[in-house]
Amino acid sequence: MTRVAVTGAGGFLGWHVRVLARALGWPEPVVLTRADLTDPATVATRIAGVDRLLHLAGVNRGDPAEVAAGNVRLAAALARGLERCPEPPGAVVYANSTQAGNGTPYGDAKAVAAATLAAVRPDLVDLRLPNLYGEHGLPYYNSVVATFCRLLAEGGRPEVHDDRELTLVHVTDAAARLLGAPAGHPWDAGMPGLRIGVRDLAALLTGFAGTYHTGEVPDLPDRHAVRLFNTYRSHCFPAHYPVPLTRRADARGELVETVRVHGGGGQTFCSTTRPAAVRGEHFHLAKLERFCVLRGSAEIRLRRVGDDTVVRFPVSGDEPVVVDMPTMWAHHIVNTGPDDLLTLFWTNEVFDPGRPDTWPEPVGQPAPEPAPALAG
Question: Could you tell me which of 97, 88, 86, 81 has the C-alpha nearest to residue 7?
Fold first, then answer.
């Protein structure tokens, strides 16, 4: 089982690396904080004997001088720890950028940082990453995708001032390459890129938002469309949910339309759940999954992987709603009523037992409600 140490574990890329390591069943990575990096002895102790050391920490935005100095300083600190390590890591991997050496303060600093690490580890894996996008990226910081998604989720519209072509790689694919994970669904260690203009990207995401506003699922013809849609959904959660459904009734009874998918199908199934029983306790890396309670009462609980906060949605068959599970959030549904619960589930892909994209992870119990204040 691969043992990994990571700098920059709290960042966008670092979080996705830790989620993928968990999905692979690897031990929780050793996290090197910026405070750790100030002490070479601490670095040497913490990285000793690991199979793979990933240097993800960096400075991406801010004053140009600090961006330049910060990236070089972090690499030099890690290099000093490597020099003192009694049992060096099996591999050292640097999350570099395709902008390295392009004449900008950021690009030149990334090139210097790579050279600094290579001077200590000539076998350095210098991985030059393009524009990364994915769930829970920071708008106005990590990528234009995150910025457009946040604007749309809040009811705004993207504005395009510089329509240039981008190469976009989903962050899980980059994490797979950094970790040395085997290629295969739902990630691809070959890091397949999507070439798209900024204006076309804005139009695509705007179309997603317009279709999904009422809970309809847009046409998702390929893996990048699915991942871009999942990225948009991450900015909608939890404020967008639950989505109310329209009930139609006549003398025969009632009808509720739970899923409308543009250009695709997927798989729909129903289950009954005994009182107090729980279904779920897992997360997905790419799969879309929708819950709709048709009879009985339940609570849907979700927790972002690596976080402690549990989000709860009480739901009932008396007032049908849908809740879509965000990728990389552990989730379950528990029957809170006295009778059997009837739930409809939909996923965007037919279940494949060989590649299920279902990773065990308990949600845990929600935090207790605060006690009411006492009068007087």
Answer: 81
Beta strands at 125-129 and 91-97: parallel, antiparallel or unpaired: parallel
Domain residue limits at 144? 4-206
Whether the CB-CB separation of 152 and 188 falls below 8 Å is answered with: no
- Write the CA distances from 70 to 8, 13, 62, 74, 93, integer angstroms: 13, 18, 10, 6, 18
Give start and end residues of each alpha helix (H) in 244-329.
none
Asked if the structure places residue 292 within a domain, the reply is yes
> How many angstroms separate the CA atoms of 146 and 79, rounded?
32
CB-based contact 60:141 (threshold 8 Å): yes
Same-domain pairing of 28 and 139: yes
**Is residue 110 domain-resident?**
yes
Which stretches of the chain are DSSP H helices?
12-23, 34-37, 40-47, 64-84, 105-120, 144-153, 171-179, 198-212, 223-236
pLDDT tens-place string over residues 59-99: 988 888 998 999 999 999 999 999 999 999 999 999 999 99
End-to-end CA distance of the chain: 59
Q: What confidence tens digit (pLDDT) does each residue in 266-316 have? A: 999 999 999 999 999 999 999 999 999 999 999 999 999 999 999 999 999
**Strand 131-133 to strand 91-97: parallel, antiparallel, or no bridges (unpaired)?**
unpaired
Backbone angles phi, psi at 119, to 5 degrees: -65, -30
For the purposes of burial, counting CB atoms within 10 Å of the CB of 155, is it exposed (0-12), middle (13-18) or buried (19 or more)?
exposed
164 with 304, same domain? no
- Is residue 224 one of the residues assigned to a domain? no
